[in-house]
Amino acid sequence: MTKVIATAMLGLGNVNRNFLKILEMKADQLFTQYGLTFRIVCVADSSGVAINANVFDPAQLRQFKETGGRIRQLTEFLPNRTAVDALAMVPCDLVLEASPVDLKTGEPGLSVTRAALQRGISVVLANKGPLVLAFRELHELAAASGAGLAFSATVCGALPVINIGQRDLIAAEITLLRGIFNSTSNFILEEMTQGRSYADALVEAQQRGIAETDPSLDVEGWDTANKLVIIANSFLGSHARLADVTVEGITQISSTQLQAALAADSNIKLVASAQKTVDGYRLAVAPAILPKRDFLAGCSGWEMGIEIHSDLYGKQFYKLWEREPLPTAAAMLRDAVNLFRKQ
Known about the structure:
The chain has 343 residues and is of the alpha/beta class. Helix content is 38%, strand content 25%. The chain has twelve helices and twelve strands. It starts with a strand and ends with a helix.
């Protein structure tokens, strides 16, 4: 049986634009293999919101945004309306939330996520802010309304860290989790080790659409800390907040330090860790000097990786190479398909 999914997109930056690209490439496969058809009926960016009950064409919408278009320029633009308003005006099954991260207010993503879940509309998140600020609240809203809530794209893009933790480590006690969760920082450190300047490496990360809208979230360790908080809440059984994470970024790492580590057959990496203690988990993000034989030391350039130690499943190691936003958009698609093919 075919299901048509009326979809709203909040944020039309690199990730959701790549979601539109996937719809262009894979619409037939999604229909034939999964019985799903995504129809974009509502879109919003920082300039406003637009509704088209007759659906927006993914290719036209992507090209419009990639050539500098703003939602307020569309004929379907709704003046003096917000994305929350729009959810009450158009039948909608799914919100794809990929607006910029705001760790102070979570907006606009947090309000839209709340409103959607309260109305029984499923939400797939690439934006980490709402989860970091209101993880338990959003899950309670989803449970109360029966809406789906999925967020595997928030942690390491296409690497299915959340799926592994929630689905594949049943009854495990995780004693140690370590990871490189931010490819921008990892790329910058490797490029600096090879003699490139910090500024030039950051510019390339921004041009590729990998760096956060606010790149300080990457290089000061907060993007990594966000992901660690989401992991802790989703499958470590911890009600962690960002304030519970000790955070240090890479901005103070010099080329001299990187070269010294290299001479000692080591690499400097920005490492997230969750160490099991008698009082729960000790959560930290900080640069670490790792011997080259260490798994995380071997995560180079655009790679991210995670190492999980548990009592039942031994030591597991996962790695991903991702230097453009397409895999993160694919993770959103994965979440959406998994939510709706169960219905």
